[in-house]
Design goal:
The protein has 194 residues and is an all-alpha fold. It has 7 helices and no strands. Helix 1 packs across helix 5 and helix 2 packs antiparallel against helix 3.
Length: 194
């Protein structure tokens, strides 16, 4: 929709230091986020079987997110990290979803925009992680992910413009960005992406 979208809340660099205090836990959470992102992209197809204009983009995104999961999993295996029996609740996502409107069309639009916002937030935080990690390979890994996640954010915003006017999308996006900023300000920092 527009170049250089800015989040309404800038994550402080201190968040990154807190996040990697327990890097094994961060990696586990990161892997969980990637597999949820893949499933979320596919869920749009299930919810919108008639919106064929965006199906291929969603499939490609789901595959790319699953590939990210695979790469994080490989790092986990190298470090001897296993998954927990149950994925912990993501309060960030839960609070964002609660911002969705209730009518079918409005909810679909909000879910697309929220998907974009989540990708932008992930990009921002991967960029922070890439700056503070000492391991050269991990720094490059997170730098590459930052670029990919930002592109995914653009994709979800652009897909929403397939069905709604750019002005309407921009106005709603700005409201959701303000809501997301309040959510981020209220969340406890932990060894996790959100």
């Amino acid at each position: 929709m527009e170049d250089g979208l800015r989040l309404a809340y800038d994550t402080p660099i201190e968040w990154g230091h807190k996040a990697i205090e327990d890097f094994d836990m961060f990696l586990r959470d990161h892997a969980d986020c990637e597999r949820k992102a893949s499933a979320m992209a596919m869920s749009f197809i299930a919810k919108c079987p008639d919106r064929i204009e965006i199906h291929q983009k969603l499939i490609d995104t789901a595959i790319e997110e699953l590939h990210h999961f695979k790469m994080v999993h490989e790092i986990m295996v190298q470090r001897g990290i296993t998954f927990k029996d149950k994925m912990p609740e993501d309060l960030y996502i839960k609070q964002l979803i609660s911002c969705c409107r209730s009518s079918r069309e409005e909810r679909l639009m909000d879910r697309m925009l929220i998907a974009g916002i989540v990708e932008y937030r992930g990009a921002e935080r991967f960029h922070i992680i890439s700056k503070i990690l000492n391991n050269k390979d991990l720094k490059q890994f997170y730098k590459n992910l930052y670029l990919s996640e930002y592109r995914h954010g653009d994709l979800f915003i652009d897909m929403s413009c397939t069905y709604w006017s750019k002005n309407y999308v921009r106005d709603r996006l700005n409201q959701l960005l303000a809501d997301e900023a309040k959510i981020c300000e209220g969340l406890e920092w932990r060894s996790a992406l959100h």
